[in-house]
Amino acid sequence: MEDPANQPIHLLNRRQMLGGIGAVAGSALLVACQRAAPTGSAPAAPVSLGGLSGEAMQVWNETLAAARVEGEVNIYGAQAGGIGIRALTDPFESSYPGIKVNGTFAPSQDLVPRLVAEHDAKKFIADVIVGPATQSVFVLKPAGVLGPLEPALLLPEVTNTSLWLDNKLWWIDSTLPYTTLRFQGYITATVTYNTQQVDVKQFTSFKDLLDPKWKGKFVANDIRQPGRGGNQVRFVYDHPDLGPGFLERLIGDQEVVFSSDQRQMIDWLAQGRYLLGLWVSSTQLKVAVDQGLPVAELPGLTFKEGAPVGAGGGTVNIVANAPHPNAAKVFINWILSRDGQINWQETVQQPSLRQDIPRGDLEAAIIPLQDKPHSDGGTEEFFTRISDDDIRAVVEKALDRRPPSSSS
User: Fold this and answer.
1) Of 352, 46, 406, 14, nearest to 170 (Cα)?
2) Helix (H) or strand (E) holding 284
3) How is 112-133 classified by DSSP, letter by letter?
4) What is the pLDDT of residue 323?
């Protein structure tokens, strides 16, 4: 697979980035964007100030003026660099000339430890974080990295719950202060497949994955690590007709092979080395599909047992001790605004939780609908009830039941 970024991305000089703090384990993949000028894209619009008056209007105007004095905002994102640039940087700068975005993008497993290390070293660099969901509340919040987000939500079009799915703001946190707000929600998929060798009509239940003919034909994201697949795995673990016993049989009896390399897994599926994938990145898969590779995602509601609504990198935080606090507030209100969410949705091709925006050419199968029941597997409460240790225990038990030569 080719790199999905279509604009230049360069490694940020470690000394510039950390201002002298030591290297952080697992964070070498961090990149920052130095962008070419946007080509041919229409300028984005600033947020709507409808419904804002009096003291609230004064607060917004003062915040915006102070943000322009600060002149920049540092965004840390858990998106691929090219996607982060197109979704978070260029459009904001078009909407708010005079406020420059410094974007730094890396997988959550690299981004989160670096943020903790910077905080512990009192190197306050980041202003806003976009992407990590449960790791925000389980790691960053207890470490003191995050500030309360609610006070930063200044605009009525952001705080008006009637504009969001299920008439609520989708907080990840279970307890105050709320720090992590999700703005993206899609009906998650568990299974990816080779379109040339798999007839998907045979799948109506998760239990169909246990058919012996699929033994040795699965590759899966390694769910022993926090991150991708967590919602889907917990949904299955929690389901009364599936549960940990089903997961153990799926992983053990079907001799599922684990990997943490999304591109490698997708390439293996495209080549036919494996025919079915579990918990594969939807974003990376779309890149492969656009390149003509014979892979696809099985819609989550294919299975009669259902599917949870996932966040998939669509969350936002404000950082405690942010060096540009006013620019951070302007950015947060922009990304949560109608225009910010239209831009995000068009870029990442995943549905916003805002209900006042067009869906364009999004696949209907991934869009959660207003007034329909939703299983939200992305909350702190859900991840607390079914812990990473619970998931790892099932995986290890499944691996123990295999012949030694087939364990991974």
Assistant:
1) 352
2) helix 282-290
3) HHHHHHHHHTT----SEEES--
4) 98
* Distance of alpha carbon 181 from alpha carbon 314, whole angstroms: 9
- Is CATH 3.40.190.10 correct for 14-185+312-366? yes
Report domain extents, the chain: 14-185+312-366, 189-307+378-406
Sheet with 191-194, strands from edge to edge, namely 257-259, 218-221, 276-278, 191-194, 295-297
Supply angle C-alpha 287, 289, 290, rounded to 5.
65
CATH number for the domain whose boundaries are 189-307+378-406? 3.40.190.10
DSSP string, 180-209: -EE-B-EE---EEEETTT--GGG-SSGGGG
Per-residue pLDDT tens over the stretch 209-268:
999 999 999 999 999 987 788 889 999 999 999 999 999 999 999 999 999 999 999 999
pLDDT digits (tens, 9 = 90+) for 361-385: 898 889 998 876 667 777 898 888 8
Handedness of CA 338, 343, 349, 350 (dihedral sign): negative
DSSP codes, 230-271 = HHHHHHHHH-TTSHHHHHHHHHHHTTPEEES-HHHHHHHHHH
Tell me whether domains 14-185+312-366 and 189-307+378-406 share a fold. Answer: yes
User: How many CB atoms neighbour CB 197 within 10 A?
Assistant: 12
